[in-house]
Amino acid sequence: KVETALVPVYVVAQLLGAAIGGGIVFAIANGRDGFSASDSGFATNGWADRSPDGYNFGAMLVAEVIFTAVLVFVVIATTSDKFTTAQGGIVAGLTLALIHLVTIPVDNTSVNPARSFGAVLWSGNSDAWEQFWAFIVFPLVGAVLGVLVWLLVDDSRLEDTMLASSATVRARDTMAGV
Fold it and tell me: What is the pLDDT of residue 152?
């Protein structure tokens, strides 16, 4: 429902918000004797030796794509007339909490590239930047997957999106007959 021209503004606002939020968390954590953002990892995302429990690249990929898809699906679902604003916020918030409980051990949970940016920006760890790309790419893939699954579930919304084309409508209608 966002106007295309406003997308860059929202992206910059998300990154700015993540940088400010990361800075606030850094300032608080830095008040503890012996704190080191680079030694602690500062909640940066990663796999293999950067994963909290040593999960590999494949596990991280699955976690980010699938759980971002779930989150996006839930957020879109809660914007329907079937949910009040309060219900939508509660359902989306509980979904995000569950996602974090499941995926923090895998890769410190991204499901939002801006969240990953805020952590890596203040981490003081150049190694964290090497894996940062994955926490942009795979949540975006997951977001697209979540939207596509939602469109399969609630086909009446397809025509209201930028995805509406003769090909996508035809594909949707074909899938409806399966």
Answer: 83
